[in-house]
Structure formats: C-alpha cells, structure tokens
Amino acid sequence: MTDSSLSFEWDAANLGHIAQHEVTREEAEQVVLGDPLDIDMQVDETSEAEERLLQIGETAHGRILQLLTTWRDGKVRVISAWDAPKQLKSYYLAEMRQRYGDTEDSEV
Fold first, then answer.
1. At 76, is the secondary structure helix, strand, or coil?
2. Does residue 106 form part of some domain?
3. What pLDDT is recorded for position 45?
4. Beta-strand runs (E) in the chain
5. Whose CA is closest to 23, among 80, 62, 75, 71?
6. What does the pLDDT read at residue 38?
7. Does residue 107 fall inside a structural domain?
8. Does residue 50 sit within a domain?
9. Mean pLDDT score, 8-32
10. 32, 3 contact by CB (below 8 A)
C-alpha cells in the first residue's frame, strides 16, 4: 500500500507507547504505507470486538518493525510498534526477496 492520503489516529497514549519501544510516529507510518506483511488478525474482546492486525514491515531507513494496528473511524490507529525479532526479520526479508528481488539495504 502506498496511499499517502491514508489518515492516522495519534494521541498521547499510542505515541507514548511506541516511544517506549524507541519507534517514531514517522517510522510506524512508513511501515503501514509501505508494503507490510500481514502476520495475524486478532479480535480484542475487551474493545467491543475490535479487529487488530499484526504486521511486519520496513521503514525508509531499513528498520524492520512489527506493528499492531486497528481501524477507528476510517483512520489507522497504531496500537503498538517494536523492533521485529530476528526470526521474523529473516522471514520478512525472504518474502521481500521472493517478491521484489534483493533487499540488501535492510537490517537483520
């Protein structure tokens, strides 16, 4: 997905949470707007059965992050974002190589 018109919902809660993992708002948005891999769909029963998507993707600087997102009022809300574990980074890079060729600039 490369739709830069996609809107995001940010507030002190989710900005503070991703900051705890040393992830910036810009990095999280880059992953969502890039070509992330969907890993899992979860339903949070404590949030009125809100669907949450677990994804892995890459920032403009090659940082590979795992994100948990949801849709609220037509906007993407990043619930959390953190560095992907090494095994998932390797999986992501293999998938990207298969789709697009070499991803040499990425981290592992």
1. strand
2. no
3. 65
4. 37-44, 50-58, 64-72, 75-83
5. 80
6. 93
7. no
8. yes
9. 97
10. no
Say what percent of the chain tops pLDDT 90: 71
Q: In angstroms, rounded to a whole number, what is the distance separating the alpha carbons of residues 51 and 108?
A: 29
Q: Could you tell me the residue range of the domain that residue 90 belongs to? A: 12-100
Q: Is 20 helix (H, G, I), strand (E, B) or coil?
A: helix
Which tokens in the block code for residue 25? Answer: 């708002």
Global pTM value: 0.83
Phi, psi of 99 (to 5 degrees): -75, -45
Kindly give, in sequence order, each residue whose CB lies less than 8 Å from that of residue 71, ignoring residues fewer than 6 positions away.
51, 77
Q: How many domains does the chain have?
A: 1
- Say if residues 48 and 92 touch (Cβ distance below 8 Å): no
* 3-state class percentages of the chain: helix first, strand second, coil last, to nearest 5: 35, 35, 35
In a domain, 48, yes or no: yes
